[in-house]
Amino acid sequence: MENMNTRAGSLIFATAFANSLLGGAALSDGLGLWDWIAVALLFGIGGLIVFMLWPYHQYAFRFDPEELLDQYVDGDRPATMSAMRRALALRIKADMASNWRIIQRLRVALQIALFFLLLDILAWLFAIAAV
Asked: Which one, of 97, 94, 93, 92, lies nearest residue 62 by Cα?
C-alpha cells in the first residue's frame, strides 16, 4: 500500500509539473480544442488520484490479540501450536486475497492515470504546435 501511495504522489508531481510547464505556453493564445482536451484529461487524472489516495477501511492485515486468545488459548479446549499456526496461515492467505482485489483496482487506476498523463502531455504539445 505504501508503494501505491508513493506512486500516486509521484503522479501528482509529474502531472503538476507537465501541466504547469506546457499548459502555460499552450494557453497563452486562449483555449482551443487541444487545450480543452488537456484540461479534461487533467480532471480525469485528478479524479483517479483521489480514487487511489482515498482511505480504504476494508483492508485486513491485523489480528486482534483478544480474539486470538479467546479462539485458541482461553477456550474449553486450547488449540495446539500446530493447529494455531495452520489456522493463522489460512487467515493470512484469506486476508491477502481480500487485499489483493483492492490493490488490483488501485493498480488499474494508476495505469489509466499514467496513460491519461501521456495523452495530456500530447494534447498540450498539439495545442502549442497549433499556435
From this structure: 92
CA distances 15 to 4, 42, 81, 97, 126, Å, are 16, 8, 52, 32, 17
Which residue bears the cell 502549442?
128
Whether 60 and 95 have beta carbons less than 8 Å apart is answered as yes
What gap in Å lies between CA 116 and CA 32, rounded to an integer? 19
Burial of 58 (0-12, 13-18, 19+ CB in 10 A): exposed
pLDDT digits (tens, 9 = 90+) for 2-37: 787 888 889 999 999 999 999 988 988 889 999 999
Q: Is the pLDDT score of 110 beyond 70?
A: yes
CA dihedral (94, 97, 102, 105) in degrees, to 10, reads -170
